[in-house]
Specification:
The protein has about 300 residues and is an alpha+beta fold. The chain contains six helices and 21 strands. A hairpin with a 6-residue loop joins strand 2 and strand 3. The termini are close together.
């Protein structure tokens, strides 16, 4: 059974950590949000034009992380793990104050975020949740990468990786976010190949990366002490990323996603295809109202509120 009413925090919570790519110490304060507000980042190190809405439309880069940018060029990056944590905790509205341009990586998973959020009091609000219910299959193919969504009464993700590295390999997992135990998804860390570290640094990224916040694979071995947290940690982290990126849709999605070799970029491309016509969503406050819109391939994208 789907939850009906929106939720937010009843009081602020704070934490801090290093940014994975910037290497800067980042302080976060999550404040209660108003009904129907959604998730808004606020760059408190800036005085003007410092609000950045968590929306797929504001994704300016999806290289190694999800970066949001408002119309004034103000950015906030590496938002996906925190957004996934808010999704799992069922927090629909919040203002997230950040004193740098990047959300801290913490331990590379959602575990630290969830441990903090679980200590906060959650309050139910009077407005209903906005659900996006998929009634027809929509698919996007980009070279060897593929993602699709089909009807389902829950948010379910079927994700498959295909790496030449034999440690990562062809991992696959299927997770129903409403019915399955999410602990292994929550604890799964971001990862990279040791051979790619120098390439990442040449892009000016990965300045805060370490074995404390990422799994590093060097050919046939894992460099982290203690190895993996679970046997499917690589694909489980990709599922976590996807959940965070899907919250940028502005809805709680009811559908089954199938993703092959995906990542932040493919997810954002897919959301833009799925939700490309804003006029199709103008009256979503009406209960059980169904809208449909044809895309370029003449597939019917139908959306309904289920609250």
């Amino acid at each position: 059974m789907q939850e009906i009413y929106q939720q937010s925090l009843s009081m602020p919570i704070s934490f801090e950590g290093v940014g994975l790519h910037s290497g800067q110490n980042s302080k976060i304060k999550i404040l209660p949000g108003n009904e129907d507000q959604g998730i808004i980042f606020k760059r408190v190190d800036l005085k003007n034009n410092n609000l950045v809405k968590a929306s797929y439309k504001n994704v300016s880069s999806a290289k190694l992380c999800t970066t949001l940018k408002n119309e004034y060029g103000v950015k906030i990056s590496t938002v996906e793990h925190l957004l996934a944590s808010l999704y799992i905790m069922r927090i629909d509205n919040a203002i997230i104050e950040v004193n740098t341009e990047e959300v801290p990586i913490m331990d590379g998973s959602a575990k630290s975020f969830l441990n903090i959020l679980k200590k906060a009091n959650i309050k139910e609000q009077s407005k209903k949740i906005k659900y996006l219910k998929i009634l027809d299959t929509v698919e996007l193919i980009d070279g060897s990468r593929k993602i699709s969504i089909e009807p389902n009464n829950n948010f379910e993700v079927d994700f498959q990786l295909n790496y030449q590295n034999k440690i990562i390999g062809n991992q696959r997992n299927v997770i129903n976010f409403q019915e399955d135990d999410l602990n292994k998804i929550i604890e799964s860390r971001t990862f990279c190949l040791f051979e790619d570290i120098e390439k990442i640094k040449k892009f000016g990224l990965g300045k805060g990366g370490s074995l404390d916040n990422a799994v590093v694979v060097d050919k046939d071995k894992i460099l982290n002490e203690g190895g993996l947290r679970n046997e499917k940690e690589f694909v489980n982290h990709k599922i976590l990323d996807l959940a965070g990126d899907f919250l940028l849709s502005g809805y709680r999605v009811l559908g089954k996603i199938k993703c092959y070799q995906g990542g932040h970029e493919l997810t954002n491309m897919f959301l833009r295809k799925l939700l490309k016509t804003t006029s199709a969503f103008s009256d979503l406050e009406s209960k059980d109202t169904v809208f449909s819109k044809k895309n370029k391939t003449d597939q019917s994208i139908k959306i309904a509120v289920n609250a």
